[in-house]
């Protein structure tokens, strides 16, 4: 946790341990997508057909809609707002994992990795998890989004716009008591831009909070054996971090 304007975080614990982060790794996909749009390699108005990828369940909205065709911008918006699995796989189908990795390298992103597409069933033939990251890697990535230095200002702004309506404020952001359905630009009070990840034995939340006091960046990741009933304890710790963010702001 730290101010976006400062070079050093206020607090860090285990910042360089690589952990499973579930859907928080989709932040890397959004960065690659934004870079492709800003370079002219990907038209944000191009319509993508969800029928070109396999159906996938769990998080997301597109699977419940009638419309098969959505623009690149709309698909990325679904990833940022609802961590949409079908939209994630659609963007990956367009970009490919290799391009995501090469874009990350070109942008100087380290410590954040997207290993695979989203799968309803993950077997020994597949990568063990969707994505991994260190807290430092995610912290640095979202700090650059906040500061407008992820590649360039337009790329940063595009990622920020896709994340600004995140529906998941259940973790670190919970103590801010914002409306999870309406907390974007134009609303009073602090503004949260974040990306979360949830899986069995995984909780992750990375983001920043803007207020009159400045921009405070945070990243919290927890991994534990899925068979242990630790979710409540983990969420309490996430909320405690959120309380600290609230006090600082």
Automatic annotation (TrEMBL):
<dbReference type="InterPro" id="IPR000871">
    <property type="entry name" value="Beta-lactam_class-A"/>
</dbReference>
<dbReference type="InterPro" id="IPR012338">
    <property type="entry name" value="Beta-lactam/transpept-like"/>
</dbReference>
<dbReference type="GO" id="GO:0016787">
    <property type="term" value="F:hydrolase activity"/>
</dbReference>
<keyword id="KW-0378">Hydrolase</keyword>
<dbReference type="Pfam" id="PF13354">
    <property type="entry name" value="Beta-lactamase2"/>
</dbReference>
<dbReference type="InterPro" id="IPR045155">
    <property type="entry name" value="Beta-lactam_cat"/>
</dbReference>
<feature type="domain" description="Beta-lactamase class A catalytic">
    <location>
        <begin position="11"/>
        <end position="215"/>
    </location>
</feature>
<protein>
    <submittedName>
        <fullName>Serine hydrolase</fullName>
    </submittedName>
</protein>
